[in-house]
Amino acid sequence: MKFGNVDFDTYFKNYPDANGFFGKYGGSYIPPELQRAMAEINTAYQTICKSRRFISELRRIRKEFQGRPTPISYLERLSGKLGNVQLYVKREDLNHTGAHKLNHCMGEVLLAKYMGKRKVIAETGAGQHGVALATAAAYFGLECDIYMGAVDIRKQAPNVARMEILGANVIEVTEGLQTLKEAVDAAFAAYCREYKDAIYCIGSVVGPHPFPMMVRDFQSVVGIEAREQFLEMTGELPDAIVACVGGGSNAMGLFSGFLNDPVDIYGVEPLGRGTALGDHAASLTYGEEGIMHGFNSIMLKDENGEPAPVYSVASGLDYPSSGPEHAFLHDLGRVKYDVVTDDETIDAFFELSRMEGIIPAIESSHAVAYAMKLARKMDKGSILINLSGRGDKDMDYIIEKYGVRKG
Predict the structure, then answer these.
(1) Candidates 92, 269, 388, 393; catalytic one
(2) Domain ranges in the chain?
(3) Is 380 a catalytic site residue?
(4) Which CATH architecture has domain 22-62+101-211?
């Protein structure tokens, strides 16, 4: 399959290129001293990702510790309510720690151990990446520092408690809007000071090369499993697949299994309260090319060309850019990126909970909301949704802000 001049038969051999670019997006825009550290990480990753010992250990961890493969569930009642289109969900909420994040965290910390590092550093928004990294650090016996915005700490108290119970040092970030972007800033600054003894385990397909590639590779297990499982369940591929997109790790995980198939692919961004700058975090829909946090992608900018303030009801999606591979697939037209509002997202949160007995993360509810809209437009067919995480972490916030809806 080809889109433009890109042949998806050989896509993963060619993208990113040796310098970490997906077309014009990606790269590594960081100080020379940190560039040497990134080159060290890239060399180590390129070495061990071909190692039978590393691959075998990662497969063992996924099976015996993470509980993979995660299943696909058919949403019979919700499908019947919406019409003739059949909805399915890939259950990353059943992955250990409750989200897809552990897929790359176990790989990143295994890499850190291979490199002889004593500490891992990361940012977190919704807390799922922080919990996953704290889990991986505990598993391998490394120190762990997690930077988290003060606003997100208040919204995600259960995940903060989990990180601390697992032995992580949760560091509150009080600068700026006190959310995910500021947490990344603080974690990156800490890594600049500690790179000789630590590794920065980026929480999505963002950052300087090689992290967009590494995180995609570790998350590709989602798409590989889902494609095989869906064929086994139904005898055919889904007509469409849907995932939420902030930085975009869960989406790239699912999309990577289907890029070379005749399947429609949708990435769903948070429109939040509306289209005004500062009321949403839909960078691919409303942004423009720009560099932040060491990589070139599509980002939301303020009047000075700096990263704009963003908002989403989902702490894991309020980031002013997206991964460079998403920007590349957006420009190619291989993936359609669209939006849903906070209100549509919360409606979907309650609908899936009441109709199917599955409480989704607010991030994942964006994908559910869009799939429900898509199902109403389609006459027939099937849609596979990546249910990237469970909603336990969101319960206190949901009840405080929206109550427990009746009926």
Answers:
(1) 388
(2) 22-62+101-211, 67-99+221-402
(3) no
(4) 3-Layer(aba) Sandwich (3.40)
